[in-house]
Amino acid sequence: MEFKTVLFYIFATVLIVAALRVISARNPVHAVLFLVLAFINAAGLWVLLQAEFLAMILIIVYVGAVMVLFLFVVMMLDINIERVREGFWRYLPLGAGIGILLAAEMTIVLTGRYFGLENLPNHSFPADYSNTKELARALFTEYYFPFELASMVLLVAVIAAVTLTMRSRRDTKAVDPATQISVKRADRIRLVRMAAEKEQGE
Prior knowledge:
Number of domains: 3
Oligomer: single chain
Largest sheet: none
Number of strands: 0
Helix content: 55-70%
Number of helices: 9
Shape: elongated
Structural class: mainly alpha
Order of helices and strands: HHHHHHHHH
CATH architecture of the largest domain: Up-down Bundle
CATH class of the largest domain: Mainly Alpha
CATH superfamily of the largest domain: NADH-ubiquinone/plastoquinone oxidoreductase chain 6, subunit NuoJ
């Protein structure tokens, strides 16, 4: 067995165990830490697939920024674990059905006639090959329309999240364009006539 195969099984095993602990850990802080461990092992798998750029982006962006933010929010909030787990058994059949469906689709893809692992390309890349350059070329040439569509979906999701967050809060400053347009000069400016003051000694 090759050393690369041994590394694959180690990373894959730790990744699966960490992913299971993310959804089974009772402490939310422990769940976030197990998610960090899962991301690190996923980055290791990407390095084995010669996708170093994606592995570094996963470490820098998700582990270095997003997961730190998640950990900070989880540790700062006073989360009631019992209240969060109230609807677990109610949604368990739906979650189990979706999980079985995803597992069946992955099985079909990995064992299918046209999508099996034996049909994956096995290229030997030259020494000056850059997967970052190849990824950029694929995104902005062959897949530019899905890339732009995904960016629009993410933009709409960000706007929707901000809108839903600000909708129920009354302590924030908001601007009503209709109120701004209907404002008259007399509503904002008041002229006061005052007698002239004389200096002392005059």
